[in-house]
DNA sequence: CTGAAAGCGCTTACAG
DNA sequence: CTGAAAGCGCTTACAG
């Protein structure tokens, strides 16, 4: 039994009686080869069991169709819905997604950026906010397409698709004030983006005549357990809030569970809001009022940007997809 | 301002006064170049800002250091902890992970396998169980390293690293029987793996003298909301169970929330178990008795297999990492 | 320990 | 619509 090399373009060309160039054209742009030729090539591909070598294609064509997505984590990430949509949408257009984990550690971020560049990805998608100006400059100098998502910086590295965390916070403040709440308490994960939302909330709240909200900071990544602890920490506040504004749906869920275990009815005695509008938010008891980020929309805009770049067309630098408050039972 | 091509190996070689081959050796295996030469090369890399082209390297070297991980989803996946560990561990050894989503759809699975093969990945990691024999054969014929994780088939496609779902179910049956429960009810997501666990549970339970457990099937991916519905469905049972064995921690969590809202104390009136030992399981109120799968261990074994393959060493076909029951408050 | 040279499997002007 | 040829940027026997 001889070990067979896997067939190459040349083998397909031979079987179809055409040149390798024609097979390549058929694979990448079928409409430019004659229908009859195309049919022979299709048959030859079938007969040989040819699987194109995208690595060679990437090297020769200068386009890898590889996209790097850098996320802090996936075990418990608020980005997962968006990332799932992203992978789906990008795959539907022939791209593959390289997922890299950065934690909240700038060094790992740099390492993964380097790896992505070395793989000659067509684009790097960044979730969250890259604070370090040096990293931003390095990336800019590199000339790759860089897409920042979720956050929407004033001055994007390259292109940003997302929403203003500040505005999201402001909207939530107006919404809760409109609902008659008067003493909000903020549970804020230690990340730049949550910070921004909290700032937006507080600024709006005060400008609308409210007293500055109290706040508690919790570690990232935020999770269910922190919600429970955050509820207990309320006991230490000089004045009890009437609504707790949580930095994520997980925190909100944990807080509700703990509140109810303590006999505190939500929202009657204490209202709660989350962030992210995870599927669970609509399923929880009570259902959780949250802020929805349209991951599918973000994914589609990202694809549009990528396609425009590939076609050499100009692209907007900031694409605001906004957020939407989903009013449910918890607040 | 002229646009500069990014520097190549040749440019580094020129700057260091050596041949490209030597720079390549320094990059891939520093110990085989003379220390002084290595130092000059390092300086040249620094000076030129060289970023190696891994695409070219993969083509020339026949090793991509790209690993494809195929998962059903990530928005709400019980594999996320394992995948996170996998990405971490593989990245630490210079690999990148291409994440592809397959849903529960065999056609998409085939498409993604084809893409992975076209990218000439070093290995394909499959989570869950590939039932279709034709797909299994195609993959076997291809000669790539294929690693099935979580499930542990009797006859792996290539290598399997995981645990026996059947045994996990059996262990849980013995555990609950030992705790004195007598009327288990199974909530079973419609996936081959959950099925297997349920079968293992039922077989063991009956062989230990119990009556065949009642069961409810729910859609995959399983989520919190299904847990709530599953609790309500209990009302339709002719006899009430004393413990509900849930196919995932999410289902368990939802079921507990709904039970408590209905005034049913857990575990006093109804005990509950989950599966997966997500972080949330330990944080929930009551904490959830679950079955732990050691994702870190799986990831390390996968890396070991990959390294052995790269070195041309033989590898075991089935690596059983087992599972562990984590007894907590809920059962 | 190092270099010259062939080759990995494609894509893409260029020419017809 | 199709082909011949150069080239993408590396790695790796082979030789010294």
From TrEMBL, chains A, B:
Gene3D superfamilies (UniProt xref): 3.40.50.2300, lambda repressor-like DNA-binding domains
SMART domains registered for this protein in UniProt: HTH_LACI
Matching Pfam families: LacI, Peripla_BP_3
Keyword DNA-binding attributed: yes
Presence of the UniProt keyword tRNA processing in the record: no
Top-level taxon of the source organism: Bacteria
CDD domains linked: HTH_LacI (cd01392), PBP1_GntR (cd01575)
UniProt xrefs under InterPro entries: HTH_LacI (IPR000843), LacI/GalR-like_sensor (IPR046335), Lambda_DNA-bd_dom_sf (IPR010982), Peripla_BP_I (IPR028082)
PROSITE patterns the record matches: HTH_LACI_1, HTH_LACI_2
GO MF annotations, alphabetized: DNA-binding transcription factor activity; transcription cis-regulatory region binding
UniProt keyword annotations, A-Z: DNA-binding, Transcription, Transcription regulation
Protein name: LacI family transcriptional regulator
């Amino acid at each position: 039994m001889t070990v067979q090399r896997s067939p190459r373009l040349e083998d397909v060309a031979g079987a179809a009686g055409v040149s390798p160039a024609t097979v390549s054209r058929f694979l990448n742009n079928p409409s430019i080869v004659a229908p009859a030729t195309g049919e022979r090539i299709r048959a030859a591909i079938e007969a040989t069991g040819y699987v194109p070598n995208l690595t060679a294609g990437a090297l020769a064509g200068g386009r890898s169709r590889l996209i790097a997505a850098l996320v802090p984590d996936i075990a418990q990430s608020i980005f997962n819905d968006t990332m799932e949509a992203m992978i789906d949408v990008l795959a539907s257009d022939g791209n593959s997604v390289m997922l890299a984990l950065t934690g909240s550690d700038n060094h790992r971020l740099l390492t993964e950026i380097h790896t992505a560049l070395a793989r000659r990805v067509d684009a790097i998608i960044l979730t969250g906010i890259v604070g370090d100006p040096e990293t931003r400059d390095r990336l800019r100098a590199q000339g790759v397409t860089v897409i920042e998502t979720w956050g929407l910086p004033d001055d994007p590295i390259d292109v940003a698709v997302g929403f203003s965390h500040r505005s999201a916070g402001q909207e939530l403040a107006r919404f809760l004030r409109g609902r008659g709440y008067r003493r909000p308490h903020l549970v804020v994960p230690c990340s730049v983006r949550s910070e921004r939302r909290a700032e937006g909330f507080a600024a709006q709240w005060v400008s609308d005549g409210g007293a500055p909200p109290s706040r508690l900071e919790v570690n990232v990544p935020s999770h269910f357990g922190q919600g429970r602890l955050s509820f207990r920490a309320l006991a230490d506040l000089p004045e009890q809030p009437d609504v707790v504004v949580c930095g994520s749906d997980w925190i909100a869920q944990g807080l509700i569970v703990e509140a109810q275990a303590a006999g505190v009815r939500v929202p009657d005695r204490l209202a709660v809001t989350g962030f992210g509008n995870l599927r669970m938010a609509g399923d929880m008891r009570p259902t959780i009022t949250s802020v929805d980020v349209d991951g599918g929309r973000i994914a589609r805009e990202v694809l549009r940007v990528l396609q425009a770049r590939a076609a050499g067309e100009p692209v907007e630098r900031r694409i605001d997809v906004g957020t939407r408050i989903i009013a449910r039972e918890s607040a």
